[in-house]
Amino acid sequence: MQDFGDAIGLALNLVLSGDADLFEIVLLSLRVSLTATAIACVLGLPLGAVLAVSRFRGRQAALVLVNALMGLPPVVVGLIVYLHLSRAGPLGFLGLLYTPTAMIIAQSILITPIVAALSRQVIEDLHGEYSEQFRSLALSRRQVVQALIWDARYSLVTVALAGFGRAVAEVGAVMIVGGNIDHLTRVMTTAIALETSKGDLPLALALGLVLMVLALGINAAAQSVRLTAARFAYA
Predict the structure, then answer these.
(1) Residues near 24 by Cβ (< 8 Å), separated by ≥ 6?
(2) Is residue 171 part of a domain?
(3) What is the pLDDT of residues 10-20, one digit of tens each?
(4) What is the DSSP string of 119-186?
(5) Contact assessment for residue 152 and residue 22, using Cβ atoms and an 8 Å cutoff
(6) Residue among 77, 52, 73 nearest 62 (CA)
(7) Is 10 domain-assigned?
(8) Domain-located, residue 136
(9) C-alpha to C-alpha distance for 146 and 140, rounded to whole angstroms
(10) What is the CA radius of gyration of the chain?
(11) Residue 234: pLDDT above 70?
(12) Residue 190 sits in which domain range?
């Protein structure tokens, strides 16, 4: 194991020199997490909007379920996806286990409830303000949902950023279904875990630095979106 000071120096050198292996891992992480976030938004935003504006028998149970799924253990999700994609599973014939696609599926399952629950809260609050106006215009439920999603777009971007932040930091589920295979399924979080266990601190620290910069960037973007939304609200 290297001296800590030397490891930091080597880590910075890897980042600043544009090390090919480092950025291959970073780019795969971004591809997997961005794709999973897009899928989660396509599924979660409409679901959250429908739960926000609809009143039906069992709605409270549905809300409890969605909120509970926000805390779904990643290793459980990884296990469920693994069982379905393994050779003995119902989807084993697709050959998706230990591929980036399997990792995307696991991350999508993890963050869709987060996107749905957060967007439901945002849209429900907005619906309370405009419900009488919507009734006076005799809008259909679909038109109401479309109007609310558009009006809440800045807040929903923040929701999407929260989902992406959760996805890019995930390790348990993607380790189980991806296998952490070099040059194929190795992403930042799994590589950090592996390299640390091997005692290769420079690469682990370099990936950690990139991950921290991404986290700061996500938070900065979310703050910028909130400020933009506030300016438009008071314009």
Answers:
(1) 183
(2) yes
(3) 888 888 888 88
(4) HHHHHHHHHHHHHHHHHHTT--HHHHHHHHHHHTHHHHHHHHHHHHHHHHT--HHHHHHHTT-TTTT-
(5) no
(6) 52
(7) no
(8) yes
(9) 10
(10) 21
(11) no
(12) 24-234
User: Total domain count for the chain?
Assistant: 1
Residue 83, token pair as written in the block: 């069982």
Tokens 């309370």 sit at which residue? 128
CATH of the domain at 148: 1.10.3720.10
Are 82 and 176 in contact by the 8 Å Cβ rule? The answer is: yes
Whether 206 contacts 11, CB under 8 Å: yes
Q: Evaluate whether 123 touches 53 at the Cβ level (below 8 Å).
A: yes
pTM of the model: 0.87
Q: What is the mean pLDDT of residues 107-121?
A: 94
How far is Cα 13 from Cα 206, in angstroms, rounded to an integer? 8
**DSSP state string for 19-69:** -HHHHHHHHHHHHHHHHHHHHHHHHHHHHHHHHHH---TTHHHHHHHHHHH
Q: What's 86's DSSP letter?
A: S
Tell whether 8 is covered by a domain. no
Q: Which residue has the tokens 């591929």?
A: 99
End-to-end CA distance of the chain: 57
Residue 201: its H or E element: helix 201-234
